[in-house]
Amino acid sequence: MRILLTVGHSKLKNGSYTSADGTEMGGGNEYKFCKSLSTYLKKELQAKGHEVDRVVCPEDVFTKSTEEKQYKLAIEKATNYDLTIELHLNASSNINAEGCEVLYKTANGKKYADKIQKKLATLFKDRGVKQRNDLYILNQTRSPAVLIEVFFCTNKKEWKYAKANKKKIAKVIAKAL
């Protein structure tokens, strides 16, 4: 299977991140974590025989978050992918919010979302799969797409576990595919 693996969000030209940041709550930065996780996930998916293109927005280049969308969609539309996966972390002002969820839009996306959620929920609380119609990565790709909210970056306990277990998380996601 040919997979486009994207990292949610970016680091803007002014040094700010467009992602959630749970460091004030004992967690961590969504973009930085997902960027790191994506390297492990790419290796795990390739080990399973998948062809994977990993996309991380160029750092310190964009001036606004909308440029992320144009960058990623241009890459997705230039190649025939079987699946697009975007990595994210959830965030909440409730420091006890926890768990994983996988978002999708289409019926084909749901098939992948169900498989990924089932495996990821062996590591984190199961928040289920959710259909979303308002996210560009799910709405505007030619291939089926899923957005994985791996855990809550604002939850200190989940952050600590995930930071120590990136390879395990990557293996579980890859195993689902």
Overview of this protein structure:
It is a single chain. The chain has one domain: Aminopeptidase (3-Layer(aba) Sandwich). The chain is built from 6 helices and 6 strands. Strands 2-1-3-6-4-5 form a 6-stranded mixed β-sheet, with helices on both faces. The chain is an alpha/beta fold. Strand 1 (2-7), helix 1 and strand 2 (51-55) form a beta-alpha-beta unit.
In short:
The chain is an alpha/beta fold and 177 residues long. 39% of the residues lie in helices and 21% in strands. It has a six-stranded mixed β-sheet, sandwiched between helices.
**What's the number of structural domains?**
1
Count of alpha/pi helices: 6
Strand-residue proportion: 15-25%
Order of helices and strands: EHEHEEHEHEHH
Nearest-angstrom radius of gyration? 15 Å
What is the name of the CATH class?
Alpha Beta
CATH architecture: 3-Layer(aba) Sandwich
Structural class determined from secondary elements: alpha/beta
- Count of extended strands: 6
Low-confidence stretches: none
Distance between the termini: 9 Å
What would you give as the CATH superfamily?
Zn-dependent exopeptidases
Q: How do the strands line up in the largest sheet? A: 2-1-3-6-4-5
Query: What overall geometry do the principal axes of the alpha carbons give?
Result: globular
Summarize model confidence as the mean pLDDT: 97
Which fold name is given in CATH as the topology? Aminopeptidase
> For the report, how would you describe the main beta sheet?
6 strands, mixed
Instruction: Summarize the amount of helix as a percent range.
Output: 25-40%
